[in-house]
Specification:
321 residues, 6-stranded mixed sheet, 7-stranded mixed sheet, 29% helix, binds zinc ion, alpha/beta
Length: 321
């Protein structure tokens, strides 16, 4: 699977101040030897930590899961735009592509990239649009009323098939099994669990866990049970999450609590708060690594920050590249 957009709430370009902070930190670390020629400079850049040499990314929610022949996309935040451009280089550019888009919910940051997903404008491509509520078509159409967007929803040339998941509890696409669960979020959201080839990935964004009693958490733990990868809405620090009760988001601390209880192998922190810098995200990850030690000293849970372009290959023991 590949993270295509990892920012929450609103697309967030890196500011000039943040760029300068990265540059200043890089220059602090450089030695004359590092700067001597093009090769040494490149090696120096390659050796810098992610938060200095690059960016976690400003595009909003989108995750691509390739399960054998089937391509699944979770959410159509602005991260779906660069994904679409990449897909145009293969069969989607020839009108021979097939994909399945699942929506967690239809807040702006999860649908805004949809009209910019170029494969939708190529005749011959086919997409299923999946959502557990009946009115996805109206919701997506509404985003493209002419007051809000110049191109109407009806302008797409690809064939679109709406799949209402409402009265089902699972669907199968080839050998892929997908289940879902309603989550607590303003106007509700849905998490998805994808199982294929003995591996499982859970896409659980935009969800708040208000009541942390074992009884209340049990349905979530059951849904997350034994997952190879849990993609988790950890928008706020634990403290800010307490202040923003009812805003519909969670934190890394609650994520690792749930992951440990559900015997999850890896957790990806996702839907990053737009005001948090890359340095702050790394700091939150370090605090979370400290937090887990006393509560689960024997845990082998692997935790990491999702960033744009990060690929996790679950068929190769979850290695990242
Ligand atoms: Zn969101
Ligand atoms: Zn939302």
């Amino acid at each position: 699977m590949i993270f295509r957009g990892v920012r929450g709430s609103i697309p967030t370009p890196v500011s000039a101040e943040q760029m300068q902070e990265k540059l200043a930190k890089a220059l602090e670390l450089a030695t004359p030897e590092d700067l001597k020629d093009a090769a040494s400079r490149q090696a120096f850049i390659d050796g810098l930590p992610m938060e200095i040499r690059a960016c976690f990314g400003g595009n909003s929610s989108c995750v691509q899961v390739q399960a054998g022949e089937e391509m699944l996309i979770f959410d159509a935040g602005t991260g779906i735009r660069p994904l679409g451009l990449e897909l145009m280089q293969c069969q989607f550019g020839k009108g021979q592509g097939r994909g399945h888009i699942f929506f967690s919910h239809t807040h702006w940051d999860h649908i805004q990239g949809f009209p910019f997903f170029v494969p939708l404008y190529v005749k011959g491509n086919h997409f299923t649009l999946n959502f557990p509520l009946a009115n996805l078509h109206e919701r997506l159409q509404g985003q493209q009323f002419h007051e809000f967007f110049p191109v109407p929803f009806e302008a797409y040339s690809a064939s679109l098939e709406f799949t209402d998941l409402k009265d089902k509890c699972e669907i199968r696409i080839g050998d892929v099994r997908i289940t879902w669960k309603e989550m607590y979020h303003p106007d509700k959201s849905f998490s998805y669990r994808v199982e294929y080839g003995g591996k499982s990935v859970i896409y659980a964004t935009d969800a708040e866990y208000q009541n942390l009693s074992p009884e209340e958490l049990k349905p979530n733990i059951d849904f997350f049970q034994d997952a190879d990868l849990l993609i988790f809405d950890s928008m706020y620090t634990f403290g800010e999450g307490l202040e923003k009760r009812d805003w519909g988001h969670s934190s890394t601390f609650i994520g690792v609590d749930l992951a440990v209880d559900a015997n999850v192998k890896q957790i990806a922190f996702y839907h990053h708060e737009p005001t948090y810098s890359d340095f702050k995200l790394v700091d939150i990850l370090k605090q979370t690594e400290k937090y887990i030690k006393p509560i689960a000293p024997d845990s082998n849970l692997n935790m990491f920050l999702a960033y744009e372009g990060l690929t996790v290959d679950l068929m190769q023991d979850g290695s990242q590249g």
